[in-house]
Amino acid sequence: MVLVLVLSMLAFDVSCTQAFLENGNKIKSKTFLSPEFIMEPGSVESKTYYDIDFPRGHIALKSFNAEVVDQAGNPVPLFETYFHHWLVGKYYEQRPSDRNFTRNSGLCQGQILGQYFGLGSETRKTATDIPDPYGIEIGNPAEIPEGYQEKWYLDVHAIETRGVEDRLGCIECRCDLYNVTNDEDGNPIKPDYKGGLQCCYGETRCKLSRGFQGGKRSIFLRYTVKWIDWDSSVIPVEIFTLDVTDTGKRLHGLTGISPENGCQVEYAVESCTATNAAGNGCVDIKRNNLTMPTGGYVIYAVAHQHVGGIGSTLYGQDGNIICTSKPIYGNGNEAGNEDGYIVGMSTCYPEPGSVKITAGENLTLESNYNSTNNHTGVMGLFYLHIAKQAPNMTFSHPPVQMHESIKGTTYAWSIVVFIGLAVTIAVAVRSWLKKRREGGYNPVPK
């Protein structure tokens, strides 16, 4: 009877866990189409679109996936239209001239890298799913200023490389190929700046091969959002964007990108020949120490790199690895497998409760690039989703800090215990029945 009682209690516990994860809060999904981008050979689209189509209400976002398509809905390969990046963020609007932008939880200055979602060429093969019971809370009426509406923007940066003279040079925004001397704001570009966002802004054009003829075409970002209705069973996550170029300084009154002030967003990789560093295998290693303002459990992590990237790793203060994210390079001609392009990034989904970052912890971010050749305008970003609590955990004592994923899950071990107890009970019952039969007892026939 004791074993039966234990079994009943365990079965009840498992069913409650399943009900918590599958409590009828059905995942909803909807696919949207961005505004139209008119692209022609060598052109650059760099623009922010406001009030884009997006799920509304008090909900928990579960994923955001996107891809570039043409007017017929066909996927567009990166060697034709290269998506340098797309960013999706939130703001509150009373009227078009009165917008209050919100941002993720850090770490950069102002609105720099403040997006909720954002990827680049790796869009098609990078997972963005947020596991149960977690979600990104949006649409909370208590957080929306009175008289305002919550809305979403889309920032896109696309480069049309049909017919260009140097595809790699164009997507790395080399200034000589764009024939510009001033940045988007009209400021002179410094002579030692060889390439990056300052040279490939909207309405610039990358150098075409002589004699190439090509027409305009319409391009769209097709994006699918998944969400559930918000309720008390959902554990909210915070979004952090870390940048390996972050200087750590926050100059008073400056919220944009400027030398020495915060996140620089991009950097250059010099060839190992030029730097006499061939002895290290021609790997450019850039490291930075970053302090987390708050703590919690890591739910999801992924890096963002450009062509030439060979991986990025985030370390805890104890030196243990929080996450290593590596690029997936294509080796074909079809969309999603373009030869030589980064078409995905590996992601980290630590076992819930197994990887904890403490408030004030000093993390080390490392970004590695192949430096056989020069690379301009590269990035070394790292996205983290962090929850204040882990599911089904008691907080009477602080959880032990761990930066290495624990193999096996609490749920899996519950199953193992369940099976073990079931087998034990079956053997015990069989033995008991055998003894009863031997004592003249016969069950009632069916």
TrEMBL record:
This is STRESS UP-REGULATED NOD 19 PROTEIN. The chain crosses the membrane at residues 411-433. Coiled coil: none annotated. Residues 1-19 form the signal peptide. InterPro entries: Stress_up-reg_Nod19 (IPR011692). It holds the Pfam family SURNod19. Keywords: Membrane, Signal, Transmembrane, Transmembrane helix. The keyword Transmembrane helix applies. The keyword Repeat does not apply. PANTHER family: STRESS UP-REGULATED NOD 19 PROTEIN (PTHR33390).
